[in-house]
Amino acid sequence: MKDPNNTRNTMPRRGSPLWIYFVVAVLAGGAACVVALAGLSGADVDALLGNPLFWILGCFIVFGELRPIITPGSTENNGATTSTTFSFAALLYAGLPIAALLQAVAAATCGILRGRSPHRIAFNVAQYTLSLGAAQLVLMLFGVRATPTSLWVPEGQDLPAIALAGAVYFVCNDTLVGTAIALHERVSLVKALRWDLGYQVLVHLALLGLAPLMVVAMDRSAAFVPLIVLPFIAVYLNASVSVRREHQALHDGLTGLPNRKLLIVRTEEALAEARGARARAAAAAAAAANRSGASRQPGAGAAPRLKGAGEPGRRTGLFLLDLDRFKEVNDTLGHPTGDRLLQLVAHRLTHSVRPGDLVARLGGDEFAVLLPTVRDAAAAREVAARLRAALSEPVRLDGMSFDLEASVGIALFPDHAPDFELLLQRADVAMYEAKGRRTGVEVYSPSKDRNSPARLTMLGDLRRAVDRGELELFYQPKVALHDGQLVGMEALLRWRHPDKGLLEPEHFLPIAEQTYLMRSITQYVVESALAQAAAWWREDLTVQVAVNASGRDLLDTGLTETIEEGLLRRGLPAASLQLEITEKILMNEQAYASDTVTALAALGIPLSLDDFGTGYSSLVRLKRMPVEEIKIDASFVSRITASADDAVIVRSVIDLARTLGLRSVAEGVEDPQTAAAVREMGCDAAQGWHFGRPMDAATATDWLRRRTQRAPEPAA
């Protein structure tokens, strides 16, 4: 179960603590190896080459290196090797030079066959040499000096010496490896050793305990050696099956990355350490403040502020990363290509995070990244930006080139959530914010979380408002600029909140659009607008009423039925109602091509394209849809008298509308100067406070009655 995303083959940065440690360990191991081999005499070499036992031992040591007993929840990189039994037996039987030489050859052979980097191979050779050398020193203290020409077979009274030598070998070997892991993962040595200490003690106790039996068997006859090996084969096979099952339970089958279950475990560990670190930092800061306060003399200045005293401890970060447009790859090139792309993404992510960070796959094209320690949101953004940069490198698969992009959401402990579930939920909120705003990376913000307590309270109030009839329609006129004639009235939704007063749509509709409540609100708006239109038409106030529709509404097949039934029930023509949709809806292929749009066109309901200029609509779609007018967004119109660029944009939209045979309506006209400017540009109609503020139904009716009693004048 080789891990394709393992980063330990990456050469440490020159001058880094891990690089320095590797250099020191390799030099020390090399020196120990030279000293050990220097003690070999010619007779020792002849005995080594002529005794088949040493060749058998060498083969077993190589096999043991290639087939380790894997640590549960890990990969072969952390496994306890069965070569330990044979190399320690060689140390007891023939001394350090033979044991070190055989183990060095085995470690180098295994490293080459497994494709390990040279620095890892050199470190492994040095690690074994130093551990065997430490055990040899203990044996020498007890008077044990074995050589190839003077073989040593232990007796019963030698067991304490062997036990102490084995313990020193284990402590030295585990400390050397643990230190390298701690520096690579950027964790404390205590944590690195504690990860699997109990398992390693148990396994090495069995492996080292078999070494004296191996020596006794070798001294009797080489034929006994294979019998000793049989238990190792059984243990290895059973351990492999057990570890494989555990690995499958904790890792993704396609990419080899940790899955959600392992991510939860690692996150909880990181959060526990972060809580402890913050508690210790807070206690230290408080103690320092007390000492400073006690030592301060009257009249002395304030004690210097400790660095980081305001925010004791560290943060833990959780990223949620989702590939953009990955579904298009699957749909176009098939799932096998998509799977290969996911494997490549996993490799790039793993090799782009910091040592010690964890990359997990949650399913589909969704990945999570755990940062056990991170300074602040800015540092987390830097890591996220590095991940996106790594993914943005072009990918070639099946002769085609892909440009990958991803959206990343960031949540931090303790700033945004106290536990894993909330961290993941809020990273998900931030990720969808990044995807919706096309920013790439977003840090969680409570104000943008539709699941935040404040928004959930608002949702409950809104649900009750629909039942209690607290929603109300206001109406704002659209006026023709060339003659002042009324073009129509736009129905604007308001909420008379019992505590917060009159609320405009931006305060509650974004919440409703994410829930089933939007359908009820849309039905209320359509029914109320049609009822008001019917009332005006009965008074010969033939006004077209416009209502706003969301993308969710256009995917609701019941909208057309509601409108058609409402028109028939009140005897109104289809032209009495207009639907306003935002330009961004045209970007949604599903909404654009929905049956609702087709049915509305067949019914004769005209569409108005609202907030034009803020999206990226296709002219082909614009021409094909039953649009009768384009409303130019107020953000451009309100600045045309002060900004030449905005004036150019507005004029271009007006010309475009005229070319397509559509009516142009300027929104946000609030003063005579702006009204005169858009009229001079050739705009057909306008809407804004200059012509009339939003009015409730009664006020709007009075306004219409007064307007019909006098001839309309050209708009100024």
TrEMBL record:
<dbReference type="InterPro" id="IPR035919">
    <property type="entry name" value="EAL_sf"/>
</dbReference>
<feature type="transmembrane region" description="Helical">
    <location>
        <begin position="90"/>
        <end position="113"/>
    </location>
</feature>
<protein>
    <submittedName>
        <fullName>Bifunctional diguanylate cyclase/phosphodiesterase</fullName>
    </submittedName>
</protein>
<dbReference type="InterPro" id="IPR029787">
    <property type="entry name" value="Nucleotide_cyclase"/>
</dbReference>
<dbReference type="Pfam" id="PF00990">
    <property type="entry name" value="GGDEF"/>
</dbReference>
<dbReference type="InterPro" id="IPR052155">
    <property type="entry name" value="Biofilm_reg_signaling"/>
</dbReference>
<dbReference type="Pfam" id="PF00563">
    <property type="entry name" value="EAL"/>
</dbReference>
<feature type="transmembrane region" description="Helical">
    <location>
        <begin position="125"/>
        <end position="147"/>
    </location>
</feature>
<feature type="transmembrane region" description="Helical">
    <location>
        <begin position="221"/>
        <end position="239"/>
    </location>
</feature>
<keyword id="KW-0812">Transmembrane</keyword>
<feature type="domain" description="GGDEF">
    <location>
        <begin position="314"/>
        <end position="446"/>
    </location>
</feature>
<feature type="transmembrane region" description="Helical">
    <location>
        <begin position="20"/>
        <end position="40"/>
    </location>
</feature>
<keyword id="KW-1133">Transmembrane helix</keyword>
<feature type="transmembrane region" description="Helical">
    <location>
        <begin position="52"/>
        <end position="70"/>
    </location>
</feature>
<dbReference type="InterPro" id="IPR043128">
    <property type="entry name" value="Rev_trsase/Diguanyl_cyclase"/>
</dbReference>
<feature type="transmembrane region" description="Helical">
    <location>
        <begin position="195"/>
        <end position="215"/>
    </location>
</feature>
<keyword id="KW-0472">Membrane</keyword>
<dbReference type="InterPro" id="IPR000160">
    <property type="entry name" value="GGDEF_dom"/>
</dbReference>
<dbReference type="InterPro" id="IPR001633">
    <property type="entry name" value="EAL_dom"/>
</dbReference>
<feature type="domain" description="EAL">
    <location>
        <begin position="455"/>
        <end position="708"/>
    </location>
</feature>
